[in-house]
Amino acid sequence: MDEHFDIAEPASLDAERAEAMIVEALAAGRPADLGGATVAGEVLAALIGGLAAETDRLAGGVRIANVVVAGGLDLSRRRLPLSIELVGCRIEGGPLALTDARIDGLAIVGCALAGGLAARRLAIDGALLLDRTTVDGHGMLADARIAGTLSLAGSVLGGGLDISRAWVGGILDATGAAVTASPVAVAAPGLRLDADLLLVAARLAGSLDLDGAAITGALVASRIDIAGGPIAFSAQRARIAGRAALEGARMVGEAVLTDAVIGGDLTLDEARLYGGDKALSASGLSVAGAVRLTKARFEGAADLAHARIAGPLDATGATLKVDRGSALALTDASIGADVVLAAGFHTIGAVRADHASVTGTLDLRGSHLRSAALAPSAGRRAGGAAPANAGADIVALSLSRACVTRLVLPERGDERPRGIVDLSHARCEVLEDYAAAWPPDARQRVRDGGGHDVEHMILDGLVYRLLANPTGRATTGGANVDAARARIAWLGGQRREDLGVTLCRQPWTMLADRLAAQGLSNEADRVTVALRRRERASRAMPAGRRWSSRLADWLMLYGLSPWRSLAVLAAMTLVLSMVWAAAASRCAAPGCLDEHVFVITNKAAYTEPRFERTYPRFNALGYSVDLSLPLVPLGYRDHWRANVAYDPLVSVALPAGVAETVGTSELSITTGGLLFVLALAQQLLGLILSLAVVASLTGITRPRIDR
C-alpha cells in the first residue's frame, strides 16, 4: 500500500507547530514528513514521550521523515511502549541517546547521526534497524538487549561500533556496512546472538572483536574487508553454532580463532590474510564440520595446533608464506577426515603436523613445499648453500609421531619438498610415495653454511602397514622396476648420520617386514642384506664382527643363499681333487698301494691274503670329496693319508733350544708334508662350508626382521 507523506516547508519549527504536524499525520495513520525542517532535540524528545502515553491512538507507532534534529535526541532512561521510525532524518549537535531506554522497536533508515549513537543497556522488545545510515560518532550498544533483528545493512559508522555483551534475539545483519574507525572497528566481546551474524561485503578500517561471543546461528562474512593492524579479526573462545563463512575475505592483520568452537564448516576459500608471524591463529579450535582454505593466500602462518576438526581439511591450491618456521601448523591436531594439501598447495615454510591424528588421507600430491631457509628470499648463495644456523627453518614437512590412515606424498620431481622431511615415529596404515620426489643423491643435496645436509628424510620409527607403491613408480606400465633397488635408494635419502656412524636400523627392518608381508620376499631379503652391509660399513661395528660379517656375506649371503657355500665347497673339492690326482700319478703301483706318495692307514682291518684284492684303491676325486665332507665319512680319509716323508724339498736347521726339545737338529720340508697339511686345511674348510650350507638351508643363520 502506497504511503502518503505530509510535506512541510523547510524551516525551524517550534514545539507547538511540530507537535501539531506530527500528531495530525500520525492520527491519520501516515508518517510525518517534515520536509527537512529543523526541530530542537528536546522538543522532539518531549513529543515522543508524550505520544508514548497515547499508544492506543498510534497503532503504527511514531514514524517521522525528513527532519533535522538540533542538539541531539535524548531518550535515555525512558520507557517508550511504541515503535519509532526515523527515515531520512539528521540528528546533529549531539548523539541519539538511548542509554537505559526501553522501546518496542526502533528503525533508523537513511539517516545521519552526526553526534553518534549512545545506547548502552538499551532494551528493545522488537527490532533495531540502522539501515543505510551514517553514524559519524561512536556507535555504543554495549550491554544492549534487542529481542529482534539488529540491522546495520549498508550503514557507515565513522566512530566504530561497540556491542560488547549485547544480546540480540534475531539476526545481526551488517551486510555491506562500512566502519571507518581504528584500531578497533567493531567491538563485540561477549556478544550473545540467537541467529545469524551477517557481515557479507562489510568494510572495516579496524579490527573485529568477537572474543567470547556466543552465536546460535552462523557467521557469514563472505568478502569482508578488514584493515585491522596487528589483529584484524578475533573470536577467541567464541561459540558459533552454525558455519563460519569467510570466503573471499581480505584481512590485514592476524585472524584469531584460538579455542573457538564452530558447529559447522569453517570456510576461507580464496581468502587473503596478511598477518605478521601468523595470518591465522586457531590453536585449540574445534570445528564440527570441514575447514576449507582452497585457493586462499596467507602472508603469515596458519596455526591450527591442537585443533579438533570433525570433517576434512581442504587447502587445495592455497599459498602460505612465512619468513621463518612453519607455514601450516597442525601439531597435535585431530582431523576426522581427509587432509588435502594438493593440486597447487604451496608453502614457503614448513608443514608441521607432529603428533597429529588424521582419520583419512593426508594428500600432498601436486603440492610445493619449501622450507623457509631455502626460500629465494632467505639469502641462499648461488652455490646452492642454505644460510647457516637455519635451525627449524630447514624443515619442509614434519609428521613426527603423527597418526595417519593413508599418507600420499608428492608424485613428480618438481613437487619434491625442498627441505627436511621428518617422518620419525609416524604411523600410517598406507604409505604411498613416488621415487621422483625422493631426496636426490647425497652429493646433489643442498647444504647449509656449515656443510650440513638440509634435504633429507628422517625415517627412524616410521611404521606403516602397506606400501601402496613398492617400486616408487608413478605408473605400472613400461619396463619392470626392481622394488628392492628402488627402496634401498629411498632409504639412502636419509641423513648421513642415520646411514653411517650411528646407523638407524628400524627403517630397514620396517621396509623388509612390509615387503615380505606383501609377498615380495626376495626384495625383503635384499633389503636385509643391504642393511647388514651398511652395518658392516658402520664405524660402530668392531673389527672382529666386521670380518665375520664379510665372511657371512661372501659364503652364504647372510644365510639367504646356501648355494654360495655349496658352490665354493664343490669348486674347492674339484680343484683339490686335481691336486690329489697329480700326486697319485707319481705312485709306482696302481691304486698307490706302494705307499710311496700316500700311506695305507687302515691295513689292520684287512686280512693279509685278501688285502691287495679288497683294500680300497686310492681315488683322487673320492678322497677330495671325503676330505671336504668331514661330517659325512666316505672311508677314503680313513684309509689313506699323505706320506710325510715323500720327496724331501729342503732342510731347515733348528735353533739349539728347539732342537733339544724336539730331538732333532733340522726340519725337513717335503712334498708329502705339504700334502698332509693341505688335507688338514681341506677338512677344516670343508667343515666350515658344510656347516654354512646346513645352517643356511635350515634357516639358522637367516637374518631376523626385528622392528
Any chance you could write out the topology, listing elements then pairs?
Blueprint: E1 12-13, H1 15-27, E2 32-40, H2 41-52, E3 62-70, E4 73-74, E5 79-87, E6 90-92, E7 96-97, E8 102-109, E9 112-113, E10 117-118, E11 123-124, E12 128-129, E13 134-135, E14 139-140, E15 145-146, E16 150-151, E17 156-157, E18 161-162, E19 167-168, E20 172-173, E21 178-179, E22 184-187, E23 192-193, E24 197-198, E25 203-204, E26 207-209, E27 214-215, E28 219-220, E29 225-234, E30 239-240, E31 244-245, E32 250-256, E33 261-262, E34 266-267, E35 272-281, E36 286-287, E37 291-292, E38 297-303, E39 308-309, E40 313-314, E41 319-329, E42 334-335, E43 339-340, E44 346-352, E45 357-363, E46 368-370, E47 385-386, E48 395-398, E49 403-408, E50 420-422, E51 427-432, E52 447-448, E53 457-458, E54 463-467, H3 483-491, H4 506-517, H5 521-537, H6 543-556, H7 562-584, E55 598-600, H8 611-614, H9 620-628, H10 636-639, E56 640-642, E57 648-653, H11 656-662, E58 666-670, H12 671-698
Parallel strand pairs: 1-2, 2-3, 3-5, 3-6, 4-7, 5-8, 6-9, 7-10, 8-11, 8-12, 9-13, 10-14, 11-15, 12-16, 13-17, 14-18, 15-19, 16-20, 17-21, 18-22, 19-23, 20-24, 21-25, 22-26, 23-27, 24-28, 25-29, 26-29, 27-30, 28-31, 29-32, 30-33, 31-34, 32-35, 33-36, 34-37, 35-38, 36-39, 37-40, 38-41, ...
Antiparallel strand pairs: 55-56, 57-58
Write structural notes for this entry.
This protein is α/β, with parallel strands linked by helices and 707 residues long. 21% of the residues lie in helices and 31% in strands. It has 12 helices and 58 strands. The strands form 4 sheets. The protein has a 22-stranded parallel barrel. Strand 2, helix 2 (41-52) and strand 3 form a beta-alpha-beta unit. Helix 3 (483-491) runs parallel beside helix 5 (521-537), helix 4 packs antiparallel against helix 5 (521-537) and helix 7 (562-584) packs antiparallel against helix 12. It is rod-shaped.
